[in-house]
Amino acid sequence: MFKDLEGKVVVVTGASSGLGRAIAKRFGQEKAKVVINYYKNEGKSDELIGEIKEAGGEAVKVQGDVSKEEDVKKIIQFAIDTYGTLDVMVNNAGIQNEVPTEELSLDDWNKVISTNLTGIFVGSREAIAYMLKNDIKGSIINMSSVHQIIPWPHFAHYAASKGGIKMLSETLALEFAPHGIRVNCLAPGAINTPINKEKFSDPAAKEEVLKMIPLNKIGEPEEVAAAAVWLASEEASYVTGTTLYIDGGMTNYPSFQAGKG
Q1: Is the residue at 255 inside a domain?
Q2: Residue 215 lies in a domain
Q3: Choice among 83, 158, 238, 245 that is catalytic
Q4: How many CB atoms are located within 10 Å of the residue 146 CB?
Q5: Which family does it belong to (predicted)?
Q6: pLDDT tens digits, one per residue of 65-87
Q7: Extended beta strands in the chain, E state
Q8: Which residue has the higher pLDDT, 256 or 134?
Q9: Which pLDDT band holds residue 178 (cuts at 50, 70, 90)?
Q10: 90: Cβ–Cβ under 8 A, 6 or more apart, which residues?
Q11: What is the number of structural domains in the chain?
């Protein structure tokens, strides 16, 4: 547990399911004040609020589409209006869809880039502007992916967005380090989230994924959430401009394990 997170105000975008839900819940377990952003699933947000309060934290919900600048501003202002400040911004919301690049429409490209990259830019910008104005040495955590460095055919828009998140985060970290504002990325690999449920329910497909993971296991959302709270805590006070990979070693060229290559 990280006692310094108790009472801190944390915004988590895309928090009604998957990684965002696990992250928001873990911050709640740390007794933080959590602002849960959801896009469509209000019911699951209500469930999560109950779980966070049961764990000793506080939580409220706010609807918003992070691909829209006015919605991101609304989410952050809601947090400030509700809890009086903002200490941690977790830009988690993201989308993906598989399309061969030669068939990828500009609309599909723009939708993924607007949500995954532009949404994180606006969320980071607005949070940093508030922190600067109020002399808050806050933490920005941006959800990336192993695909910020691993190419992924049929997901050109997704991989491009994640590569952009890496460089955006490193640039912001460098720019605002003198103000004590830390900016880092989380880059999960294969995680047992609802979006992956169908793939991992197929034994053959799961086995193919496991071949790419040296630790030979699928990660759990709670393992990503543990990394998020550590990055936000004082224990990570000397960490900025970096990416923490939670991938079981996927980025370590697993085909070379056992002396191959």
Answers
A1: no
A2: yes
A3: 158
A4: 21
A5: Belongs to the short-chain dehydrogenases/reductases (SDR) family.
A6: 999 999 999 999 999 999 999 99
A7: 9-12, 33-38, 58-63, 88-91, 139-143, 182-188, 243-246
A8: 134
A9: very high
A10: 10, 11, 12, 13, 20, 23, 141, 143, 228, 232
A11: 1
> What's the pLDDT at 261?
67
Token pair 């799961």 in the structure block, residue = 206
CATH of the domain at 187: 3.40.50.720
221 lies in which domain range?
A: 3-248
Tell which residue, 42, 35, 38, 33, has the closest CA to residue 11.
35
Residue 118 has pLDDT above 90, yes or no: yes
Q: Which tokens belong to 199?
A: 């793939």
Cβ contacts of residue 236 below 8 Å, gap of 6+?
139, 182, 184, 230
Domain-located, residue 123: yes
pLDDT of residue 1: 86
Residue 258 domain-assigned (yes or no): no
Q: What is the pTM of this model?
A: 0.96
Taking residue 7's Cβ as centre, other Cβ atoms within 10 Å add up to: 15
Residue 39 is among the residues annotated as catalytic for this protein: no
